[in-house]
Design goal:
The protein has two helices and 13 strands. The chain is of the alpha+beta class and 225 residues long. It has one domain (58-224): Sandwich (Immunoglobulin-like). A six-stranded mixed sheet has the order 2-1-4-11-6-7, with helices on one face. It has a three-stranded mixed sheet with strand order 3-13-12, with no helix packed on it. Strands 5-8 form a two-stranded antiparallel sheet. The chain starts with a helix and ends with a strand. Bound molecules: copper (II) ion. The site of copper (II) ion has 6 residues, from loops.
């Protein structure tokens, strides 16, 4: 073997070894990245599970909370891709029964008294923008946004026109013309006085509607006594 051929063989060997090392390095980096991603997801789901289980066991009765209804919008409740309105368990009434086609649905039925102002506080932990919302405000409400510079409250008054608001869901009581938009990662507060006893359904009409509007998920019932 002459020197030139030997040099060629050495260079080729080095190139192959280098490529193989690079590949090993890239593979290791990808695996590390993926484990980090899985860890991150696991911790997020852990947080969500913690939030949901604390909500399900929290003691919030209408008497101790002075007619305040706390609801949470939980994305992908139970991992079935069904989002849900979740109410602290002790607040919810039993009529009619919440039922669903999948998993264990939270009992999100609400019982309130007629003729008394009821304050609704809805916290949305869904970060997804799912649709634009255009409507005229029938029931005044406030949206609380958490920003880097603190909490910002946006007031919406009766008759005001909302056009193309980026939202995750709505809180709607179709029979009472209540239709409140819920942007991602916000808290919505409004007060409503039910004038007539009865059972009213509430749901997310935009975008969930009939498809995801299952009882116990994004559909529930308000019993007005
Ligand atoms: Cu929805």
């Amino acid at each position: 073997m002459n020197e030139r051929v030997l040099l060629g063989v050495v260079i080729l060997t080095l190139v192959i070894a280098g490529a193989s090392l690079t590949q090993t390095f890239l593979l290791t980096a990808a695996v590390t990245d993926q484990s980090r991603h899985i860890d991150q997801l696991a911790s997020q789901f852990g947080d969500l599970a913690g939030i949901v289980s604390s909500l399900m066991t929290a003691q919030n009765s209408p008497t101790t909370q002075s007619n305040v209804v706390y609801l949470y919008v939980v994305p992908d409740f139970g991992g079935s891709t069904y989002d849900a309105f979740v109410l602290p368990a002790a607040f919810s009434g039993n009529t009619p029964n919440a039922s669903s086609t999948t998993g264990t649905a939270p009992n999100n039925n609400i019982t309130v008294t007629h003729g008394v102002p009821i304050k609704f506080v809805i916290s949305n932990i869904d970060t997804a923008v799912l649709q634009n919302f255009t409507s005229q405000v029938s029931v005044p409400f406030t949206i609380y946004n958490d920003t880097n510079s603190g909490q910002v409250a946006l007031q919406y008054t009766q008759g005001q026109t909302i056009s193309n608001m980026a939202i995750s869901h709505t809180f709607s009581i179709p029979n009472l013309q209540v239709n409140i938009p819920i942007p991602p990662d916000t808290m919505i507060v409004f007060t409503y006085t039910f004038s007539t006893p009865g059972v009213y359904s509430y749901l997310c009409t935009t975008p969930c509607g009939a498809g995801m509007g299952l009882a116990g998920y994004m559909l529930g019932y308000i019993t007005v006594t």
